[in-house]
Amino acid sequence: MKAMHNKLKALAALMLAGMMLLCGCDSGTETMPVMELSSHVPQKGREEAAFTAQLYFLSDDGLHLSVEEREIVYDGGMSRAEAAVQALIDGPQNTVLRYSVPGDMALQRVEASHEACNIYLLASHMPEAREWLTARAAIAATVFACEDIAAVNLYLNGMALGYYGRPLGAMQPIATTLDAYMAGLQQEYKEIAQSAVTEAGIYENRTATLYFTDSTNTLLIAKNVTLNYDSSESYQAIAALLINKLLSGTQELEPVLPEDFELIGPVSIQPLKGQEQTDNNDPEEGDSPHPDAILPGGTEQGENPGVDRGEPSIITLNIREPQIPYDIDVMCGALTLTLTGFIPDIQGVAINMTGSDGRTKAVSTGYYTRENFSHMIGRIVHIAYPDKEGTVLHRVPRAMTSVDSYDPRHILGELFAGPAEPGVMYTHMSDEDIADVYITGGTVVVDWKQGFEKKLREYIDRPEGSIPADKRERMFIYSVVNTLTELEGVSRVWMLEDGKKLGSINDVYLGNALMRNPGILVDD
Quick one: pLDDT band at residue 220, thresholds 50, 70, 90? Predict the structure, then answer.
């Protein structure tokens, strides 16, 4: 028994010695060597991002939409939707697949908003019915896969197209085969067309994209609603229904029409010819040209059973001048985007206003088009603000312009601009402290101006403050990291000062890229 005990003691001593060797320890006072840190600094080059897109092309037999997965590299600041749709238009790489968007169509622009994505195509001819419906279905599926936006509005030469003389509404990904979808849609619209002859009442159910505003009353945010109306209703009556929906408002967003908004008389729809476009008579780069100016002789009209391109027209609204304060740009923008987005063949909206003295005047010379308000279309992003205890970060929804919402510099500026509701503002830093922000691979690099480390240390050490001192560094660093990693394709944030590598300010090491910390985020 004693021999066994001695063997166990020897074995224990041997194991202890082995552990000391593995840990780099000995019986002396030698300390562990300091780990050598990387001197690598991320270099600024062409700002590019990449993602694996699911592109929906036409199967060889033309009956299905088939997915082609492809790695897409695109310029930073561009939406994934725009990059994916452009790749879709460029065509499949797999030789057994076919184009789902006619090859002669060009992408003009993309507007990604809250619940809808607007896709603008240019073409010199009218597509066949099956071509247009296929393009709608393929683009809707592609956009949903890369942006998680469940509705797409597709415009050709600046206007929505009709089908059998009726609106198509916003497009959502189809749940059946393409052939089954086509057959069902054709049957539905043929019955609607037949009901106009027989006067049999059929109700249409369509998804319409309306536009409301954010808390700053400066942007227009897309919100989808379901419209139900009798198939005998005219476009004028549908326009009035859409305006009533705008007046009803939505709980999520702010109203765009004043409570005392009132139409005077019926909505008027007149041919475009002879009417003047507001402040934009000569289309600038990026604008939609007049549909009859695509090629000499106009847009070619081929064999198009079902798909309509009627005469481009203008909606005229006569309204009573509101007495309740309102924003004229928000009001006119919401009316223009909502009406031209749903009703086919509408190129613009003219608005006349009658004052309390009975005099009527045009709100602006000519008519408004969608281009007039494209810069106001907003998208919801999430900004990370800390709570007062310094324990969590609130994901606060914030509206930004569609273009700025994909730009990390503008998003970081939004973090410092506030307001933080809920949460606490960072008053020690501002947009002025940023030298540069750029994307390299899946990393956003934030290059602070000289003096950043000093300002952050002063913020951490100052005696007063809304957040406990020992939580300030972590909350600030991860407010920046978690806000910027909301961007699609971004997984890390690397901070520099004046182009140089940072070390540790207090507890957080900034010499390498930091990953998102979802564990401290709460949704609001």
Answer: very high
